[in-house]
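Hey team,

Filing this mostly as a record. A colleague (T.K.) asked me to run one chain through the structure pipeline before their review meeting, and I want the input and output archived in the tracker in case anyone asks later how it was produced. No errors, nothing strange. Just documentation.

Input sequence:
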Amino acid sequence: MSKKDRLPPGQKLADNFPIFQYGDVPEFDEKKWSFSVTGLIEKPLKLTYKEFLSLPSAELTTDFHCVTGWSKLDLRWKGVLFKTIASMAKPLKEAKFVEIIAEYGYTTNLPITLLMDNDVIFAYGLEGKPLTREHGFPLRLVVPKRYAYKSAKWVRGIAFLKEDRPGFWETRGYSNSADPWKEERF
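Output structure:
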């Protein structure tokens, strides 16, 4: 498949990897940082950064599409697959959605079925190096099949929910489904 065929409608190929965020880049204090998994699950989790890094890791090469109209192809991520975390927490049958919780109260939301895809990863590495703070260090979610506002930076946890709970950008008029192939921007 050519690069042109991998660009969703309305997207342009970016040479660099632009940085967008709402608010400041948070400081990281490993002694205070934790990743929590709550909600409709059998086994709540609270992991330190070292514990998170010790989980089985994966390396994926994916495309990344920003709602502002640029795409970056073939980014190499390293981290923990979403489905690895889900298998540890054991979501209950009634859990249909997941709220992703990040620094400063930022949230986003996705159906659990989408997050269980083989290409959804909690990344701590990019292009063979640790993520930079501007790109989400120490941990960001990467959801290649959705616009990048669903790929939250500075993730601190997730909550499994029965009903959908729109997040920060979704409550401000951005598409809840955010499919770049359907141009679901706003």
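Quick notes for T.K.: The longest strand covers residues 70-81. The chain has a mean pLDDT of 97.
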